[in-house]
Design a protein that fits this description.
This is Cyclic nucleotide-binding domain-containing protein. Keywords: Phosphoprotein. Pfam families: cNMP_binding, Response_reg. This protein starts with a strand and ends with a helix. The chain has 3 domains: about 5-115, Sandwich (Jelly Rolls), CATH 2.60.120.10; about 120-300 and about 305-325, Response regulator (Rossmann fold); about 340-435. Mean pLDDT is about 85; it is low at about 140-150. It is elongated and about 100 Å long. α9 (about 245-255) links the parallel β12 and β13 (about 260-265). The chain is α/β, with parallel strands linked by helices and about 450 residues long. It contains 15 helices and 16 strands.
Length: about 450
């Protein structure tokens, strides 16, 4: 019987490094480790946590490929080392079918692990779920971590954070874990009413909300935040926790404007990773008639209008990174708010012009234009309200004239096929030219 060697490691030390050549396998005798793999964006994802009695490092010993992942000690631990001669001796005792089966399974596992680490943002999850590439009924959630030297530079203590979750046990577990990681400004709520009411209070930098409060309700609050209809910074970072990555839930939350989604069961390391990723890089915002939030497009569709992106301030980076310029941050925030509102006005002006065209088409085809006239009134009223806020009296007057003329068309006191309509379309076109994209 072979003699196995024992080896000890301290918390935070690496037992294996991804890409290294294999020379042995390990059996965990005492303590715990995490298996982490690099993503294509430079971060890391925790594939699993191992406990005493479990083996690791065996994949590379079977297929003689470089280590597919790193293994890091979560606490002081002791290992049993299975050296190459001993491992090979055990493997040679297998029949040829079993040896080939093990190699095939390991090859597939390597490929699946790489796919898993690159599925991270809501858009990727939604696409994969729609294609049936994710088991939406049984999802094992994983943690993702960045390099230690980057984490050492971060201070989570000043990040104003709210945790909204109806499950008190889950809420307390996450809150306690985040406190251990350095978070100090943590609020918590357990109902949708309390969550909605909290949006009337003090500023927040980070929101983590479980959709057990109601997916539609949560999406409504996120949408209101992004559109500036609450007291909360519209550029705060928002994460949602969901039970499973079903396409319908992902679509509702993504269209509301959240930054990221986490699938249950949620590991603390995964939450920390999402925060770190947003600290490192924040997606620019897209502004349309209905949507304000992170750009979710993988690439622009050919032949479609190019929608401008807005670089928005990053509240979690401002709070967590050292030597941040507060004056510059506040200046950037004001500029971004002005830019977002300007783009909203652009989109409303374009929509008014488009609706005018739809009404013309309906009239030309002898169809009832009532629906599009009503939509035109609604959009023009919203546009007028935005122009009033920026004290643009000249264009407010143009909107009022448009509304008055639409009222005449609806009442039948103005001609939609003659000079009245030509004058109307001319005013709408002028409004679009003055307020629309240049």
């Amino acid at each position: 019987m072979p003699e196995y060697k024992n080896k000890e490691y301290k918390k935070g030390e690496y037992i294996l490094k991804e890409g290294d050549a294999p020379d042995c396998a390990y059996i965990l005798q005492k303590g715990s480790v995490e298996v982490v793999k690099r993503r294509t964006d430079g971060g890391e994802m925790v594939l699993q946590t191992l406990k005493p009695g479990e083996i690791f490092g065996e994949m590379s010993m079977v297929d003689f490929q470089p280590r597919s992942a790193s293994v890091r000690a979560l606490e002081d631990l002791s290992l049993i080392v299975v050296d190459a001669p001993t491992f090979n001796q055990k493997q040679e005792s297998l029949d040829i079918f079993t040896k080939n089966l093990v190699r095939t399974l390991i090859t597939r596992l390597r490929e699946q692990n790489q796919i898993l680490v690159d599925l991270s943002d809501p858009a990727s999850l939604m696409k994969a779920a729609k294609k049936g590439q994710i088991d939406t009924e049984n999802t094992n959630h994983t943690s993702v971590l960045f390099k230690e030297d980057y984490r050492d530079k971060l201070d989570f203590g000043a990040i104003r954070f709210i945790l909204a979750d109806a499950n008190s046990q889950s809420r307390q577990s996450i809150k306690g874990g985040l406190h251990m990681q350095g978070f100090r400004e943590i609020d918590e709520v357990s109902s949708f009413i309390d969550f909605r009411n909290r949006m009337k209070g003090n500023e927040l930098d980070l929101i983590l909300v479980d959709n057990n409060l109601g997916t539609a309700h949560v999406a409504e609050v996120i949408n209101n935040i992004r559109h500036g209809r609450t007291a909360i910074n519209p550029f705060c970072v928002i994460f949602a926790i969901i039970d499973s990555p079903d396409p319908a839930t992902l679509e509702i939350l993504s269209e509301a404007g959240l930054d990221d989604v986490l699938v249950k069961p949620v590991a603390l390391g995964n939450i920390i990773d999402r925060v770190e990723r947003r600290i490192r890089k924040r997606k620019p915002f897209v502004v349309t008639m209905e949507y304000v939030g992170p750009d979710r497009r993988s690439n622009a569709r050919p032949g479609t209008e190019e929608i401008p992106l807005v670089e928005v301030p990053n509240p979690v980076a401002f709070k967590a990174l050292p030597k941040q310029d507060e004056k510059q941050y506040l200046t950037d925030q004001r500029k971004a708010l002005i830019r977002v509102e300007s783009l909203k006005i652009e989109r409303h002006a374009v929509q008014v012009f488009w609706l005018c065209g739809k009404v013309s088409s309906q009239v030309d085809e002898n169809k009832n234009p009532s629906y599009f006239l009503e939509k035109l009134v609604s959009v023009t009223n919203k546009l007028a309200g935005k122009l009033e806020k920026r004290e643009d009296s000249a264009r407010v007057s143009m909107c009022e004239l448009i509304l008055s003329m639409v009222s005449d068309f609806q009442a039948g006191t103005a001609d939609m096929a003659g000079q009245d309509w030509k004058e109307f379309t001319s005013i709408v076109a002028q409004l679009k030219d003055e307020l629309g994209p240049k």
